Amino acid sequence: MSLFGGSDNLSNHSDFSTTICHLHCQMTHFLIAAITITGIGVLIILALCFKKRLSSDNSTVFWKKKCKDYQNIEAFLRNYGSLAPKRYNYSDIKRMTNSFKHKLGEGGSGGVYKGKLLDGRNVAVKVLNGSKGNGEDFINEVASISRTSHVNIVGLFGYCFESQGRALIYEFVPNGSLEKFIYEKYSTNKQLKWEKLYQIALGIARGLEYLHRGCSTRILHFDIKPHNILLDEDFCPKISDFGLAKICPRKESIISMTGARGTVGYIAPEVFCRHFGEVSHKSDVYSYGMMVLEMVGGRKNVDDGVGRTSEIYFPYWIYERLELDEEVELQGIENEEDNACVRKMIIVSLWCIQTSPSSRPAMSRVVEMLEGSLDSFQFPPKPFISSPRSEAVDSVTS
User: Is 10 contained in some domain?
Assistant: First the structure.
């Protein structure tokens, strides 16, 4: 027994107290950590739930804000009733396109995909850009094409209008757009014979005549260009893409527009400047004329890549050739029949691109001219705003 036994007991008691204190601190830290982790977990769960709810709400709000006329479009589709084509769900669109596997092309309003209906028919499905427009292009397409039934107008089989996306289902046209067969840069494609080009120009003219006069209402397309002309297996042309179209009463033609619409190079002067006249069906006539001149020239009407300055603006160059009664020197002219087709297309086009809308023929007259004899043709006035060569080139290029 030690004389300092009391001190040993005190030391043992101190060690025990230290251990208890240490355990107590560990337990406290553990509890604090557990509470913190639990709190963080609860907060994360709440945040995820809130985010999901907010995302769902925002998605609906965003869709309705983005398409300000969402309810109007739905009302339009209801009011159209049996006149509207079949409505599909977005899941149907994914199924018929095999989840958008085969892309046919890309347009200004969205991508186009090959699809197949349940009855086996091939279709072209245009998925409209969700980030573009307020639904006007969708209404224009449904309202205009569903009113038509003509061999030279593309058929509309159905549509989809949901928050997931909007889509239009057209007949499938295997040869694609006209531009692939008229521009020299597409050298991989077989160049069409002049007789075939002439028949395509005539078919497009008949389609436009139908839109302007053959429907219950007059339809103005406002975007006639090679990209919007589709060719079937027999190269029969079909006018497509009515996203910029305007519908007006059959007896009326002049319409009001707040801004220019169309594609540069094909827009009639009065569409971007009312000084030249009123906007009407004659604006489509101008676009048609510019397009047919590109079919004749095999290139864009304005081409800075040509060798001679006088050839930069093809309509000016071709007019000079005719005015001087010179050979147009175009490739592929093999006989008098080809020459007659080419001269018809050129003279009709020059009439169509007259600066003043009142000087342009209606599409019914265009069809008559193309089907008629060259002997009955009058030589058109110079259709350009500026006759000096350099000014004409600078004006068109700018």
Answer: no
